[in-house]
Design brief:
InterPro entries: DNA-bd_dom_put_sf, MerR-type_HTH_dom. By secondary structure, the protein is an all-alpha fold. The protein is 63% helix and 0% strand. It folds into two domains: 1-55, Multidrug-efflux Transporter Regulator, Chain: A, Domain 2 (Orthogonal Bundle), CATH 1.10.1660.10; 70-102, no CATH class.
Length: 112
């Protein structure tokens, strides 16, 4: 299917499809005129659904994929999340696992 027909079917514009393609959110079409297979349209629909459901931009979704695909990027993002308090640190996570293993929950008494 050509890009204009694919865009119409997805309720978007050819320009937006090209943008999503440049971000890596669509399989790269073969050389020449852009032709979109049923699988490519399915991928585009999933990306659109994720963007709408989680209220994120195509660029944010593409970055999330990069975080999943590149361990160094994931580590940097995890560090930022820990330092901003959005994720527990590795030490806090290990402490919670130890408490769970011991059958305890909540806060340990302070050390003396």
């Amino acid at each position: 299917m050509r890009i204009s027909a694919a865009a119409h079917e997805l309720g978007t514009s050819p320009r937006m499809l090209r943008y999503r393609e440049s971000l890596g959110l669509l399989p790269t079409p073969s050389q020449g005129h852009r032709q979109y297979s049923d699988e490519a349209l399915s991928v585009a629909r999933l990306a659109l659904e994720l963007e709408q459901h989680y209220d994120v931009s195509p660029a944010a979704l593409a970055f999330a994929i990069r975080v999943l695909a590149e361990p160094s990027v994931a580590a940097s993002v995890r560090e930022l999340a820990e330092r901003t308090g959005r994720l527990p640190t590795a030490a806090e996570t290990e402490r919670e696992r130890a408490l769970k293993w011991l059958g305890r929950s909540g806060v340990l008494p302070p050390r003396i």
